[in-house]
Amino acid sequence: MPVKYFPALFVFLWATGFIGAGLAMPYAEPFWFMTARFFIAAIILAVWALVTGARWPDKRGLVNAAIVGCLIHGIYLSGVFWAVRHGLPAGMTALVSGLQPLITTLIAALFLRETVLPRQWLGLLIGFCGVALVVAPKFSLSSGGINPATLSAALAAVMAISIGTVWQKRFAVKIDLRTGTTVQYIAAGILTGLLSLTFETQTVIWSPELLFAMLWLVLVLSIGAILLLLILIGQGEVSKVASFFYLVPGTAAIMAYLLFGETLTLVQIAGMVLTTFGVALATLQKKQPAA
After folding, report:
1. N or C end of the chain, less CB within 10 A?
2. pLDDT (tens digit per residue) in 253-285
């Protein structure tokens, strides 16, 4: 598949994660589920790396890969799942997550010295407004799940993936994807495993929905989507890669409409159009003049 299609494929695969999360959370606690998911993905990737003779990172590479894994996988995914399970409404979760491209771009500008044009900042702001419109029908301030704990978990998750994305670009982009991602998942699995042993009961209700969600999230998200994300980070500016996350809520809303018959309002459609325009403004490059 041509590289130019990777952003669209990443957005589509990442959006399916919300469907998988909705299927899994009634049957397993978030830290336990993440631990199982991460170690299964690590085993698959480790076998792939050994069969293909991939090069394993040195000590510094191991440390950097582990840091990225704890940030992008361990803290981000677990924080979002924990907040949702403890009552934070989907609209509020998506809106907080919508801050991620702005935060990532700011960190990249400060620490990677990436040049962010006024046009790109405008595109990011427009994209965030579009996300707000997409999630508006599910936005509610009356839910009992909106409290300091759930909001802190969601914000910590957003900060973690923002810092993790920049850390990957700065320190881990040259590590082989097969071995580097294996180390990421082992580190993330250890972190969430400790959290599960500390804060959870490890109660699991085995069901076809849980097994399907685990299979889907491991193969499609933890391997397919994450490898695409790491490739995109390695090949482009972090600020532009981060802007693709704006397209996820709209894509997830379309999926929910097609699969589950959820409503899709004119406000949401307008938000999708606005978000797409914002992402285009933030990512399109000027054509170079002919020599």
Report:
1. C
2. 888 788 777 778 888 899 899 999 999 888 876
